[in-house]
Amino acid sequence: MKEGKFEPNIVAFTCNWCSYGSADLAGISRIQYPPNAKVIRLMCSGRIDPVMVIESFKNGADGVMVTGCHIGDCHYSTGNHRTEVRFEALQKAMKVMGLNPERLKLLWASASEGQQWAEGIIEMTEKIREIGPNPITGGVMAK
Amino acid sequence: MTESDLRIGVFVCHCGLNIAGTVDVESVAKYAGKLPGVAHADHLLFACSDDGQANIKQKIKDLNLNRVIVASCTPRTHEPVFRACVEEAGLNRYLYDQVNLREHVSWVHMDDHDLATMKAEALVGMAVERAKYLEPLERKAVDVIQKAAVIGAGVAGISAALDLANAGFETTLIESRPTIGGQMALLDKVFPQNDCAICILGPIMSKVGQHPKINLMTYSELDEVEGYVGNFHLKVRQKSRFIDTDKCNGCGDCATVCPVSVTNDYEFGIAERRAAYRPFPQAVPNKYTIDKRGTSPCRIACPAHVNVQAFVALLKEEKFDEALEIYRKNSPFAGSLGRVCTNPCQLDCERGKYDQAVSIKNLHRFLADYEREHGEVKVEPITPDKKMAKKPVAIIGGGPSGLACAYDLAREGYSVTVFEARKEAGGLLRWGIPEYRLPRDVLRDEVGILKQMGVTIKTGTKVGSISELKEQGFKAFYVATGAPGSRLMNIKGENAKGVYHALTFLDTVNSGKTVTIGSKVAVIGGGNAAIDAARTAKRLGAKKVTIVYRRSREEMPAIPSEVDEAENEGINIEFLATPVEIDVKENHVSSMKCVRMRLGTPDDSGRRRPVPIPDSEYKISVDTVIMAVGQQVTSDALLSKLEPSQWGTLEVDSVTLETNVKGVFGGGDVVSGGATAIEAVATGKEAAKSIDRFLRGVDLVEGREEILTPIEDIEVDDLIKMRYAPAMPTLSMSKRKTTFGEVELGFNEASAIAEAERCLSCGVCCECEKCVEACKLDAIDHSLKDKIVELDVGTIIVATGFKTYDPLETREFGYGTFENVITNAQLERLTNAAGPTQGKPKRPSDHEIPKRVAFVQCVGSRDRRIGQDYCCYIGCANSLKQAIQLKEKFHDIEVTIYTMDVRTHGLGYEGLYRRARSMGVLIVKGRPSEIEEVPSTKSLIVYAEDLYTGERLETTSDLVVLATALVPNDDTPELARKMKLSTGEYGFLMEAHPKLRPVDSFQDGIFLAGATLGPMDIPKAVAYGKGAAAGAQALMAPGVFYVEPIYAEINTDLCFDCDLCSDMCPYGAITGKGEERKIMFELCQGCGTCAGACPHNAIDMRHYRRQQIMPQIMAAIKMQGGVVL
Q1: Does pLDDT of A142 surpass 50?
Q2: Angstroms from B137 CA to nearest CA on chain A
Q3: Which residue of A has its CA nearest to B1119?
């Protein structure tokens, strides 16, 4: 733990078939990225209830990533369509909650896109570092 | 379960150094041990090993653990292993969870071990929180249907199907081509033993065709698939071959007479096949197929639906009488309409999108003229049917509409009489159109066809009423008296001397009477009548003829070639002007006052309305004015008894053409007010249809429509050479000046055939029905339709194969531009004894055997520029094999292979490489940079660099062969979507695990085999096929399959029927309302989308419950390793 340095705390929801697989592939390919995102494995990104995202921010997550299969490739055919719609609604909700909408990110990555997963995490981590800790709780690793 | 009852066991795996090398596993285990609810925490070297698993099982028993967490590699690999492990120790398998410390931590955070360990601890903490809420679940058993389906009958699919069938499972083998055998059947020899491909595959194909347990569906495609493992429901479309396969014996008589040729995909484009074809002699099933894509656009565009593609195809084959017969099935006017038709067919001609539409009109004109030049116009008389003779038909009006109606009715066997008021039949074709466009004898002979058929034509007979004809015994009537009246301009001076109306003017000239014409003639109008009047006036001696038209050239309705010829003949056209007054001196035309126009907004016809420009009046000096501003119907005794429309034309039903009097039908110009000849013919034919139905007492509307299916995507060969229609030879200007000799002289035989060759054969089969005549077994039926066959199976194997990369997309190395650059696949066909050159590798330009051949490897493979940077697996071996073939047959042939690397992997291929070199095949390490063609010889200069010696090479080759990549089939994305399969980076279908599960897909019950997964050779494809079959059998044999109990459940107490959920489910698993609402676990696949949507939390998902996820999220936020806040 680096004293005094803000380490973003990011929750990443993944789907079993694509995005969890892309995270696996990033690992197999030994692509390095910062350890700030913790993966929660679900069967489909469609399982993500918007309440889960809101509760995440309420309780202090600095960033939330909603990840899944590319549109058209969902293992359950239309699950990610709903995810996309919910994400758009959540983006609007971010403002209502008084949070920078860049704290919420949508990433579609197929199981063969390890590089994209890593890049997504790197980008997200950098962005959250820039924006700073979650203002609601003052952040877990506030200075 | 209260926290005090929880006894969680946490096992942190070193995975050798894979995890332990980065993560301090001891520390993680220690951390876990301190968490509330954890009864045991330890670290293992290899958790998945026998040792490791034994340890876990022992601890479960000894310490009464009721939850187990293994923190190791990705659960996507070993979750099933550990679940089985805990189950063996007596713990429910769903009380187990796995934490990914390898792919998600140790392998990706190698730079900072501290942070990696912290993350690992946090992830384990999350799992512990989730574990508290896990519940025991039972897998449900579903019955597995003991049948299989294999999609794709290449060598992989065939191997799979045979193994399944031999094991006793009824297997349906679905193949989209008309034959099984896939790509292997098209090869010549296969490496490394250089066996003849079809010789080794053929007997296996026969076995498939005859196997009692294999239901072979060829020329069939998967339309839809529903269901789940063990219970798939497929809808398979069995496409129509238009040949009854029960009757067909593969004799090939249909192909011999078929006039349509298209590129043969089975020869990779280097040869052609007929529309009626068999892919190759050893096809299984050994049946012919007629490739019919739909109705060609020309036929649909023609108002009379003449089968254009058919007569053009037969003309191309020099079968002129058969071609003319096709036209004559429709009307007798091949020659007349071949001169005057406005050819709507040409406007829709697909060829027109490339260079120029095929000159369809002039082609059927040629056919008519050819008949006249080589004999006489002769048709067989038709004796009217005895029964039908009792119902004679009267046709009033002997113009194109009436005559077309008579023609069709006579061909049906009716007794027909045409009543024509003028002294000769033909309508406006005879009395309106000038002779230099339509010679009298051509029309006379075609009208004569009707007489030869037995139709009675009474000329000089005007009919006063229908009742007088009824008294004569006629039972049905067609009124087609035309619109011979002229529309008036209603301007001052219109009835002065020297002012004519075009129709009257032309009629007078066509009657052989003299017309006084001045020297300065103005013709008003822009339609064909105006052009006819102008050109006629010129021939009658007018010095200056000017056409005055109120719109611009683009809006002129006249046939463009007619307008061009008018201008060639010296006629001026004044656009955007119209007369407002005719000046009269001594009751004769002296000049004309005109006003300039500009184009305003479009009117009802879509054309821009001309608007007069104020103060733009001017005078032109004229002594004759001919007005050609439109036709109208002239009222007479007959028409006065029938209902008129609001425009003064005859009112008829738009579909049946019946007037207000039963049994009296109307069509042609008398109904339309003035349209084209082909439209008149079309309505005449419709009337004949109505009259036939009326006389038979059959409904006039039902089933009368001719079914023409437009083609969705017209397939056109990419290599069309641009070529325009031949110029129409015309009569010289000097001859035209004073005679009415025919101006357009028609194509000669060579031009006509060459023009017919430009036809793209859009529909492929043109329904000329020569095949029907030729088939001695009566097996051909063009009305056969596609059939949808529904199947229920337990497992599906997808073995849909690959296609070869087409270098045409990039025209690499001159492919598509230089004739003698071909691909491996094409060379394979050239060396194949059953191929287009009977096994002689004749090069395309001059059919000579090349003396020097160069192979270029990796075309489209290992190529990052086009995103295809994988190795094609078979290119090196294939080229070596082909090189050896060439050397064996022609010892002196020089062969050079330009490679990036030579990849001869495994057993047997190194031997192939050595053999090739020992035979003198030169192998150069260095890809060519460029290939140039030598124009005189069409040989090719290959520029390359030998990377070993650094030497620059410039070698001439007679033939260049490109070793092309293997790519996914075009329909792979759609198939993947239908079956919910994943595709990989390059578009191939993706297996569940590249090392351990090569034939499994991510969908339980669906297996993958062969090159649909990626480039591979034949033995590998066979192995995959057999492997998939083994997988399918392993799944089906027990008779039941255990479905993961990860499915959604609904608490109807909380549900308030907002119904957001049922639409959301792609599997239709949510049914009912209110208390009856339920989720069918057999259909639910466990995505959880409904649970995510339910606003009242009435739906939850087993094993991914809200109460299991939320604590995990909280732990993720709060736990940052070491520090719990």
Answers
A1: no
A2: 17
A3: A140
